[in-house]
Structures are given as C-alpha cells and as structure tokens.
Amino acid sequence: MAVEWAQFHLRLNPNFSDSRNGGGGVSVRFCSFAAREDAEKKQLTSEAVKLWLDELLHLAFDMDDILDTFSTQLLVIDHQNGAGTSKVRRLFSGVKFNFNMNLEINDIADRLKVVSDRKDKLGLVYSDDPYHPRASQRLLSSYVLDGPVVGREDDKRKMVDLLRDHEPRCATNFQVLAIVGMPGLGKTTLAGHVFNDKEMRQFNPKVWVSVSDGFSLERVTKTIFKLVTSRDSDDLDEFSKVQDLLSEALAGKKFLIVLDDVWSTCDYDSWTKLQSPFRVGAPGSQILVTTREEKVAKLIGATHVYDLKTLSDEDCLEVFQQHINSIRPPNFNLLCKKIVEKCSGLPLAAKTLGGILRCKEAGSWEEVLDDKLWSTSNSERNVLTVLKLSHHYLPSNLKRCFAYCSILPNQYEFGKKQLILLWMAEGFLHQSGSKEMEDIGGDYFAELLSRSLFQKSSKNNSRYEMHDLVGDLARWAAGDICFRLEDKLDAKCSPKTRHATYISASLMG
Q: Are 2 and 97 in contact, with CB atoms under 8 Å apart?
C-alpha cells in the first residue's frame, strides 16, 4: 500500500516524468497546470480553449477524489487494526484496494497525457510558477461603500412626479408604471432611489419585491402578503385564502408596490391574478415595475413607460471614480476618454471597471484597457465584457469562491459569515501562518466586495447580494460544476456537477 501510494505521489510531483514514455520530460501535470493562466485569458475568445480548461478542471477534481478515497481507506485500515480484524481479511481488502487504485491512477495519467497534447495544439504557454500565482499588487484597504446615485436626479424627479400626481385614467384605483432599460443601466438603483424618497411617505404600506426570472405567482403574492401584514403564510394551505387576506389588508389603503426585475416569464393570466387583491386599495395607489423587456410593460398595461437612458460621459466617469483608489496613473486624464468609451454609458460597467483597476498597479491600467477582449464586444455587450475581465483578473483562490456563488438564487441576500462558512466547508480557503480560517475568508470576501462583485443589500445593510448580471457571470465561470435545481424538476444535472442546491419557490419569500 505504502509503495503504491508513494508511486502515485511521485506522479503528482512537479518533477515527475512520464515513465511510460522513457522519462526525461517535464511533468505532464506541471506542463498542463502551468499553462492554466494563459488558458484562462484565451478562453474568453476561444471556445476550444474553454473546453480544454474545463477538462483540466474536472481532471483536478478527479485527482482530489482519489486523494479522498485514499485517506478514507487509511482510516478504514486503522479501524480494522484496532478492531482486531483478521490478517487474511485485511490482506484481501488491501490487495483489492491496490488494484482499484492502480486502475484509477492509470486512467488519470492517460487523461493528463491527452490534456497535455491538446495544450500544445492550442498554443498555450507556461506561466512562471503556476503553484505560486502572482499576488494582487493592490494594498488592502477597507471597502468604500457606493457613493451617491450619479446622473439620475432628473430621472428620479420625473418618476416621483408620476407617482405623486396620479389622476385615475382607468377603471382601477391604482396605476402601473414601468421603468424599462437594458441590463446594467441602473433600473433597480433608480427605483430604490424613488422608493426611499420622502415624497413616498404618502403611501402606506410600501412594499418592495424582487421578482427576477422564473416568475412565480404564488411566491410573489405570498411575499407581498408577508411584507404588508408581517405574517407568514405557511399556515395557509389555499392560495385563494392568501389573496383574500391580502385584499382585506390593502382595503382602503393607498399603497406603493415595487416589483423589481420582472421578466417575460410573467404571462398575462398570472399578472391578472396577481393584481386581483390590489383593486380594493385607495385611489392613487401605485405599482412600479422594473424590466429589461418592453413587451413586459405592454403585457402589464403600464400607464406610463419610462425608458431609462444611458449616463452621460461625465456622469459615467464620476461613477468610475467612486470605485477606484487615490493612486492613479500620470496620464489619467488622457485615459478618461478611453474609460468612458469602454463603459458605454452603463453605470454597472463603470462600477465594475473601477473595481478592476482599483486592484491593479497604476502602470498597468492601459494593459487592461487595451485587452483584446474589448474587440469582441459591441456597445450593448460592453457590460458583459467588463464583467468577464473582472473575473479574469481575479486571483485563482478567489475564482473558486466566486464561481461557487453561482448556486445562490438571483437577488438572494446572504450574510458574510454564512458564505465564509460555506467556503470553509468546501476547502476553498488556503491557510497561511497563524491566521484563523474565518479571518482568511473575511479577506476573500472583502476583496470580492471591493471589486464590486458583491454589493450591500438595498434592503438590509447587514446583508449582501449580487447584481443579476454578476450572478450570470458566476454561472458562466462555474459551468457544469455548480447546479441549481429550482421548481423546474425536469432540469438535468451534468455528470460533472460538484455542487448542487435546491431552491423552492415557496421558500423564496
């Protein structure tokens, strides 16, 4: 057993040569993993490289599985020795285990050889030391919270006027307003800015519901019911009973309900049923919807549709400057034009690009701004380009932690300690020196926060959330590794999945 394990350990050693090919070569594993950094950049523009990188990643997972299997077998042997198991039985068990391990080790070696050969065909190059990646040059500092909302005062004033000066124009005593705009434009930020304005004190109750993709009539209704009545609906078996009680709670009251991020998964029948309890409210009640799809505004019969525009160059630059540190390159003013062009008037792009450059040395700003990935995008996709660049420039240890966040539902509010403990359980935190694991996890969390991949919850200052597009980025980064099963029970789980979570719509309220 010990001999076999020593041989296996040699195969994983960076100086191991493939003995079946005569030796003398550099380790297959070392060559492949040394090219990982180059592959992570090239995967953004090459599907073939992305597939190669995925295979390398799953190979690494399989190596971990073998290590886990071996460790478990050692515990079994120790237990058998202590329990007085017969020598014959222990010998038979050891021989069988050795045989199985040899098969798995040989399979791993064969796959490593294939991966290495493909690496050469793809033209991937080595980094200096893949086992000790270059640390971020950024000096750690406390995270600066988002500054004031920039460039939206005029939009806010118009929205407040529309909500305040309501004259009934239809049969119902409430009207529906919709803010429409492309992803990353700041629809939720504007709606939140309006929701918290002092002019909205005329409404009682005021309710904010995050809807997102996969519209659930039951979930949204129960969430509104809980926020209006401060009562859980778990004890109410029939949906019609929830609607009746909600109708009673809203009767004669002038309410404001914000439905944030409504997708076309909300059909007309669901919308009609959703608004049924609202009809008993006082005249002047309002429903404010944010959506990226104009057809949603038509479906819900919005009285006013507010098309949110991109920010001006000046405002976009101000958002960017909120998220960088005070160390700027000497040619900062010359770079401003290029920065504004990259952001295309999208505040999320400006915020995320600021988070990237915040973590780079001032002298390397132009390298990021001249990255080849920009050439693959158009103005509407620049926000996605910025987000992928943000992921690319993450240190390797943070990439695993960020990709793991793909198991979280859209607009899910999570606690800092909650996420750190999950990272610890998965073995994502690398301990160095005498620093406690939770403190290391705190550093990881602060780094992702400073890069604008996490943000403070708009509703609870002690919790955090990810923008929908950042959640999409996490799912892109995770690929098949993470699987999220919701109420769509026909969803298929990949054989390569390592982390899975089940989310029931009834629990999302």
A: no
Residue count of the chain, please give it: 509
Which 3 state secondary structure label does DSSP give 359? coil
pTM over 0.90? The answer is no
CA distances from 166 to 163, 207, 294, 341, 437 (A): 6, 18, 22, 39, 55
Q: How far is Cα 358 from Cα 504, in angstroms, rounded to an integer? A: 38
pLDDT per residue of the chain (509 residues) written in tens, 0 to 9: 333 333 343 344 443 334 334 443 334 444 455 566 666 666 666 778 777 777 777 787 787 777 777 778 777 777 766 655 555 555 555 666 666 777 877 887 888 788 777 777 777 765 544 433 333 333 232 233 355 789 999 999 999 999 986 665 556 789 999 999 988 889 999 999 999 999 999 999 999 998 887 788 999 999 999 999 998 887 787 899 999 999 999 999 999 999 999 988 899 999 999 999 999 999 999 999 999 889 999 999 999 999 999 999 999 999 999 888 888 888 888 888 888 888 888 898 888 888 888 877 877 888 888 776 665 554 445 677 778 878 887 888 898 899 999 988 887 899 999 999 999 998 889 877 788 999 999 999 998 988 888 988 877 888 999 988 888 888 888 887 877 776 455 667 777 777 777 766 554 54
CA-to-CA distance for 402 and 423, rounded, in angstroms?
A: 10
What does DSSP say about strands 482-485 and 285-291: parallel, antiparallel, or unpaired? unpaired
